[in-house]
Amino acid sequence: MRIGILNSGGDCPGLNAVIHGVVGAADQLGWEVVGFKDGFEGLLPPGDFRILKPSDTIGILKLGGTILGSTNKGHFAAKLGAGDIAEVPAEIVAHAKSTMDRMEISALIIVGGDGSLTTGLQLFRAGWPIVGVPKTIDNDLCATAMTFGFDSAVTTVVDALDRLNTTAESHKRVMVLEVMGRHAGWIALWGGMAGGANVILLPEIPFNLETVAGFIRQRDSRGQHATLVVVAEGAKMPEGGLVTMANNCGGEIRLGGIGEQVAEKLQSLTGKETRSTTLGHLQRGGAPTAFDRILGMRFGVMAVKLAEEGKFGRMVSYQAYHVDSVPIEEAVNKLHLVDPEGEVVNAAKSVGICMGD
Ligand code: F6P
């Protein structure tokens, strides 16, 4: 038997761990693994792929990125923005299917986020033998408690905050750190809490910068002259909403720039020197954490098990320390967002973190 695997959408730490898991588990069954390059694009005739043997995966577990390449653009991009869904044209689907048929691929493992799994669902409904594996640093997929890549991104945020803290203390400054996450605030919330942020601003909780400025003044009056502010790229400015980049190049809107705006406003409201840093793609690069290596590997092994059992149209899912699976349709087209009234936000507020509300 021959199975295919592709990585689609933005890359994230742990993709190679999934490949490692898939190739190892498939080899135990005597199956051959075909790795399609650059996401779904690799399926287009004549097909761009490489055969993956266990010897090809030696040492990749600890590598960031993906040995197969990935793209969040191209012929198969199914998601246009928050809530907008685009279907992949039937002729493209048929074209790609001809490669699947010619190569006698009996199962196709799609490692992707919401957009890529939405494409996977379309292909499954068109009769393809699809197994999904949830991937994104944003942790915004429903039906899985966590995606691999998230823990690595959070670890990068924590490292950045530790560094910003020392210089903030030296200069008695306010430091604003803008982090990724698209429309979900998970990276900001977890990274901010673990990194000792004093203020965390999320897409899920409307904030008021006067409130934040008052909080900073109060800290100053207590002798706490340095303040760390984490703002999620998808948070909305009180007057102005989402902050996006000018150079959107097709596909989903590019978020970014809110950190600078928050910093300017806080400086004028508090009179305190304020600097902003945008962490950007540092959150996506580099080696995966131990947690993401294990989660990715277990996801890969479970994906092969689903293929072996013929359980197509399902996505590997992490629930309460256990790796299982759910129908792909339960996971896509609705975002897994931070609950503003939930236990994690309450814990943050209980330890004195200001959420700007
Ligand atoms: O979805 C992952 C993510 O890193 C988001 O957090 C971010 O908004 C986006 O991708 C950036 O995409 P690109 O790499 O295309 O700029």
What does this structure look like?
This protein is of the alpha/beta class. 34% of the residues lie in helices and 18% in strands. The protein has nine helices and 13 strands. It has helices spanning 15-28, 90-102, 114-125, 150-171, 186-194, 209-221, 258-270, 290-308, 343-350; strands at residues 2-7, 32-36, 49-52, 79-81, 84-85, 107-112, 130-134, 174-179, 199-201, 227-232, 274-278, 314-319, 322-327. The strands form three sheets. The chain has a seven-stranded mixed beta sheet with strand order 3-2-1-6-7-12-13, sandwiched between helices. It has a four-stranded parallel beta sheet with strand order 9-10-8-11, sandwiched between helices. Strands 4-5 form a two-stranded antiparallel ribbon. Strand 6, helix 3 and strand 7 form a beta-alpha-beta unit. Helix 1 packs across helix 8 (290-308), helix 4 (150-171) crosses helix 5 and helix 6 (209-221) packs across helix 7. The radius of gyration is 21 Å and the shape is elongated. The N and C termini lie far apart (56 Å). The mean pLDDT is 95. The structure holds 6-O-phosphono-beta-D-fructofuranose (F6P).
What letter string, H or E per element, gives the SSE order? EHEEEEHEHEHEHEHEHEHEEH
Percent of sequence in beta strands: 15-25%
Bound molecules: 6-O-phosphono-beta-D-fructofuranose
Low-confidence stretches: none
What is the 3D form?
elongated
Order of adjacent strands in the largest pleated sheet: 3-2-1-6-7-12-13
Mean pLDDT: 95
Structural class: alpha/beta
Helix content range of the residues, please? 25-40%
Distance between the termini: 56 Å
